[in-house]
Input
Amino acid sequence: MLVLSLKNIKNKMTKEEIIDKLTTIVKPYIHNEEGFKNMNENTDFIKDLDINSANLVDIILDVEDEFDIHIDNESMEKMLTVKETVLIIQTKMNA
Output
């Protein structure tokens, strides 16, 4: 019963709460500190933060763990910006 309650709490996370968690997940992988300081919904992980594709996979694995979701390959390919990543997280959490 407790697990169900925690899952319901996670499902009700705001976009801002998701972005806060995502920021924490992304921080160890960035190579552009200035881009990270200005991170917003339109931030592109590769172009703006200089995150390489191998690290992007690490981020996706961390997202799966943090939000207790499974991200399929099709969704994974779309997770290039903060906005798209948040939408995918929200969709998976509400599934």
In short: Confidence is low (pLDDT under 50) at residues 1-7. Helices lie at 2-11, 15-26, 33-37, 53-67, 73-78, 82-94. The chain is about 65% helix and 0% strand.
